[in-house]
Amino acid sequence: MTDLKHEHIFHAYPQSPVAEKVRVAFGIKGLAWRSVDIPRLPPKPMLTALTGGYRRTPVLQIGADIYCDSQCIIRELERRFPLPSFFPTKDEGLMWCLSRWTDGTLFDQVVRHVLGAAGDNLDKHFAADRGRLYLGEDWAAGLKKANADLPHLVSQLRAPLTWLNAQMADGRAFLLGNAPAAIDAQIYHVVWFLRGRWAGGPSFLSEFAELERWEANIQSIGHGTSSNMSAEDAITVAKKAEPLAIAGVAAHDPQGLEVGQEVTISPDVNGGEQPVAGKLRFADAQTVVIDRTAEDVGNVCVHFPRAGYRVDLS
To answer: Is 114 exposed, middle or buried (0-12, 13-18, 19+ CB in 10 A)?
Structure first.
């Protein structure tokens, strides 16, 4: 019988490009995982019960350990399943540096592109939610500007896609060679989003023949093996388990963090999102983990990346 405390429970929705990044990561590792569907728009009460308020997609749950942001998810999957590696070459550090661009500037640019191209056809509730996250408080004006700037936005995408196309021009199967890497998933999710959510995407991408060949290679990897799970069952798993995260703070912490401090954690952008509060359990240069206790989920540890997230003392 499967030990539910060690299953990979993936909270996401099918249309999420960041979820697609992690689904490809599952495929690279050949993993089995449980799929919990979450709403595309808030409120997401079953998800935020586990995370303490974090509403972004996706979230990975393993027992009572909750991993927020694909950075944390990819890092944890590599720790638990080192082979086949997400880092098949000696360029792991450079790949993580590049991922801050793919997950940040490049992804934000594509979001503006897709939202702007949709114009008045965009669902108003979706526009208000994602516009606030990616375009700031004056999101309505930002959407209008993105629509007017669409030719410019397209021009700004042609350069990086030209670079990627050139990277594949020697016939290699994946960006770093014959084996897929984390950076393949981290770039693929942006291309997947552009192709699937912009009406002009397929025509635009047809300019890049080597990149389309690479897309097909990524698609052939698959998503591992998934089976459905209800949100209620996922919460039951958390409540019956205890978190396994280690405790401690690495030397030279720039904020002087200490185990047991009351802290809040939030994305380091003005997206109007609720901070997550808890007691610090672990922190180093890459990760910060907090303890939370709530009647509906029991004791959980919520894991966040350090890069791109703000830690404040409560």
So the answer is: buried
pLDDT digits (tens, 9 = 90+) for 143-188: 888 888 899 999 999 999 999 999 999 999 999 999 999 999 999 9
The model's pLDDT over 14-49, given as tens digits with 9 standing for 90+, comes to 999 999 999 999 999 999 999 999 999 999 999 999
Residues 233 and 309 in one domain: yes
Q: CA–CA separation, 146 vs 151, rounded Å?
A: 9
- Report the sign of the C-alpha dihedral through residues 50, 56, 59, 65, in that order: negative
If asked whether residues 117 and 71 sit together in one domain, one would say: no
Spatial CB neighbours of 214, under 8 Å, sequence gap ≥ 6:
164, 168, 173, 174, 175, 184
Query: In the predicted model, what is the mean pLDDT of the chain?
Result: 95
The pTM of the full predicted model, rounded to 2 decimals, is 0.96
Using alpha carbons only, give the angle 286, 179, 24 rounded to the nearest 5 degrees.
Answer: 60
Residues 173 and 106 in one domain: yes
Domain that holds residue 143: 92-221
Are 194 and 293 contained in the same domain?
no
